[in-house]
Amino acid sequence: MVTDPIADYLTRVRNATRAGHKVVEIPASKIKKEITKILFDQGYILNYKFEDDKVQGKIKIALKYDKLTNLSAIKCIERASKPGLRKYSGSKELPRVLNGLGIAIISTSKGVMTDKKARQENVGGEVICYVY
């Protein structure tokens, strides 16, 4: 049993990029699927696939690397809100990651979205993680 499944997801992605793996496999959940879709839409991962088995399902993520330098598209991926200390932000106080170059993933009442989209929708919520 994992205490913080989102932190486990982020750690698996971080470790796979540092080890230079092409694909990482992660146990699935609804919020992990939403985070994966956001990472794909923002260009941090190459592709993803949801495999549904009888129990939980898996997410297979193809990681993205630069062809010339072989560096990962994800420089840093870190958890913001932890189970012991939740971080919530209103629509006016949403964090900006690297002055807008990175993204913050926010769980709002309208679903999981990036900080930029949450500002447009004028909603706040729990700051899940930062990616750049």
Describe the structure.
This protein has 132 residues and is of the alpha+beta class. The protein has 2 domains: 5-63, 2-Layer Sandwich (Ribosomal Protein S8, Chain: A, domain 1); 77-131, Dna Ligase, domain 1 (2-Layer Sandwich), CATH 3.30.1490. The chain has helices at residues 5-19, 30-41, 115-121, and strands spanning 23-27, 45-51, 58-63, 77-79, 88-89, 103-108, 111-114, 125-131. The model has no long low-confidence stretch (mean pLDDT 95).
Considering the chains and any ligands shown, give keywords for the structure.
Ribosomal_uS8_sf; 26% helix; Ribosomal_uS8; 3-stranded antiparallel sheet; 5-stranded antiparallel sheet; 8 strands; Ribosomal Protein S8, Chain: A, domain 1; alpha+beta; ribonucleoprotein
Number of domain modules: 2
Q: Which structural category fits the helices and strands?
A: alpha+beta
Terminal CA distance reads 29 Å
H/E order of the elements? HEHEEEEEEHE
CATH architecture of the largest domain: 2-Layer Sandwich
Helix content: 25-40%
Using only C-alpha atoms, the radius of gyration works out to: 15 Å
The parts where pLDDT drops under 50 for at least 5 residues are: none
Main sheet? 5 strands, antiparallel
GO cellular component, one term: cytoplasm
Family: Belongs to the universal ribosomal protein uS8 family.
Function: One of the primary rRNA binding proteins, it binds directly to 16S rRNA central domain where it helps coordinate assembly of the platform of the 30S subunit.
GO biological process, one term: translation
